[in-house]
């Protein structure tokens, strides 16, 4: 069973979160000039403009995948996603980036509140205040900072998944969020496998049917783009970036980083498949032991690790992990150490190569540094540490359960 949660964050926790929030916001605006082109937090929004351009293309009967969009970037999401992004065309071009930034901040707050719900907390004003402070604190971790800067959709997809998993197992709506998220971006399909592994048949069926409906619906509306995507674009992983890119925080990226070349398919599968199975087994065991938040968080992180290519901003699943660590620290202050180590490991630390060229994230720190091989694969290392910690937690729960059962027999 879960450690019984307190009713809301304690005064000490709120004070600490307030300090962390102030420090995080200060770092956001001082480590990089907020108006610096291609790096400042207030002048981003490239990806959301790509989304908008994709939606514009289907409105004007233009091909979605054969021609580059803004700044020569290719559209890589599903045809269904372009339909989802249609409302962005209602927002004037110059207002889109700040509007999406504000939306993402609200969604970040929602993700944290949903994480508390998975831990059994009641929604109160005090919990909302703590969540707001934790949200501001999380703006400095690289996955969130980069999501906010580029105007990415990762936080919205995570909120859909968390909303699903926070519902009762028998809820008829459970699975719709996962299906919609997978319809937009395929990686959340992993959660369908996770639902099947934990024998949540109805939820898995609902998620799969929702995803299938998104494909069929879009095929009727956008037949040419759908045919192009599912028969060609879907298989072109090179449209994203080379395996060796330092921001590829996946097992395949680790192989490419260490071998300094494209990762062989056989070697990637040799590593990814066992990790996928281990992640499924541990997440299922956590769910069975009442650790609902930790279970879905581990699943989210596993989907990032085993994906062929995972940008740093895909790892927003570190956010609910930080919520879990704060939750455990409420009853055992030693968990603050784990939270601090994770936070510093995934912070958006910067390196100023020049006045106009700034890299953000530990994996983009100078490759000449002795510790570079570790930093370049930091997120996968953090994930593997979490796998080990999850296995240890499950083992302790099993031992405790056996001990309780033995005592009751006496």
Descriptive notes:
This protein is 62% helix and 1% strand. The protein is built from 18 helices and two strands. The relative contact order is 0.11. With 410 residues, it is mostly helical. Strand 1 (350-352) and strand 2 (358-360) form a beta hairpin. It has helices at 11-30, 46-59, 79-84, 93-118, 125-138, 142-150, 154-166, 176-184, 190-197, 201-221, 223-231, 251-259, 265-288, 292-306, 318-329, 335-345, 372-375, 378-409, and strands at residues 350-352, 358-360. Helix 4 packs across helix 5, helix 4 runs parallel beside helix 7 and helix 7 packs antiparallel against helix 14. The protein is globular, with a radius of gyration of 21 Å. The protein starts with 10 loop residues before the first helix and ends with a helix. The chain has a two-stranded antiparallel ribbon.
Task: Considering the chains and any ligands shown, give keywords for the structure.
410 residues, mainly alpha, two-stranded antiparallel ribbon, globular
Can I get a quick summary?
This protein is an all-alpha fold. Helix content is 62%, strand content 1%. It has a two-stranded antiparallel ribbon.
User: Which structural class should the secondary elements be placed in?
Assistant: mainly alpha
Q: For the report, how would you describe the main beta sheet?
A: 2 strands, antiparallel
Helix content: 55-70%
Number of helices: 18
Number of strands: 2
Strand order across the largest sheet:
1-2
Query: Over the alpha carbons, how many angstroms does the gyration radius reach?
Result: 21 Å
Q: Alpha-carbon distance between the termini?
A: 22 Å
């Amino acid at each position: 069973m879960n450690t019984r949660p307190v009713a809301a964050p304690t005064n000490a926790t709120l004070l600490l979160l307030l300090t962390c929030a102030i420090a995080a916001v200060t770092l956001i605006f001082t480590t990089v000039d907020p108006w610096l082109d291609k790096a400042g937090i207030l002048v981003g929004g490239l990806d959301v403009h790509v989304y908008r351009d994709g939606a514009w293309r289907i409105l004007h009967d233009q091909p979605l995948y054969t021609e580059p969009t803004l700044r020569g970037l290719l559209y890589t999401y599903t045809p269904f996603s372009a339909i989802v992004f249609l409302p962005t065309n209602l927002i004037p071009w110059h207002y889109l980036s700040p509007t999406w930034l504000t939306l993402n901040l609200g969604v970040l707050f929602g993700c944290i509140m949903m994480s508390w719900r998975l831990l059994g907390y009641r929604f109160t004003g005090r919990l909302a205040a703590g969540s707001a402070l934790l949200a501001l604190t999380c703006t400095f971790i690289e996955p969130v900072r980069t999501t906010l800067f580029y105007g990415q959709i990762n936080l919205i997809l995570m909120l859909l998944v968390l909303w699903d998993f926070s519902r009762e197992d028998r809820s008829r709506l459970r699975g719709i969020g996962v299906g919609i998220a997978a319809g937009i971006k395929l990686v959340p399909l992993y959660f369908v496998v996770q639902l099947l592994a934990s024998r949540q048949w109805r939820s898995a069926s609902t998620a799969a049917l929702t995803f299938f409906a998104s494909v069929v619906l879009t095929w009727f509306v956008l037949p040419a783009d759908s045919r192009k995507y599912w028969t060609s674009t879907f298989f072109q992983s090179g449209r994203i970036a080379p395996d060796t890119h330092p921001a590829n925080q996946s097992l395949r990226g680790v192989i490419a980083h260490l071998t300094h070349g494209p990762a062989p398919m056989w070697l990637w599968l040799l590593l990814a498949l066992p990790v996928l199975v281990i992640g499924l087994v541990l997440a299922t065991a956590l769910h069975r032991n009442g650790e609902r938040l930790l279970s879905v968080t581990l699943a989210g992180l596993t989907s990032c690790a085993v994906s062929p290519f995972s940008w740093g901003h895909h790892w927003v699943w570190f956010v609910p992990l930080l919520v879990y660590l704060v939750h455990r620290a409420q009853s055992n202050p030693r968990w603050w150490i784990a939270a601090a180590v994770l936070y510093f490991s995934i912070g958006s630390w910067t390196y100023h190569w020049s006045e106009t060229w700034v890299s953000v994230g530990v994996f983009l720190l100078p490759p000449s540094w002795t510790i570079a091989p570790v930093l370049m694969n930091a997120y996968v290392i953090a994930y593997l540490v979490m796998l080990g910690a999850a296995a240890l937690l499950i083992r302790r729960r099993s031992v405790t359960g056996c001990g309780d059962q033995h005592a009751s027999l006496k």
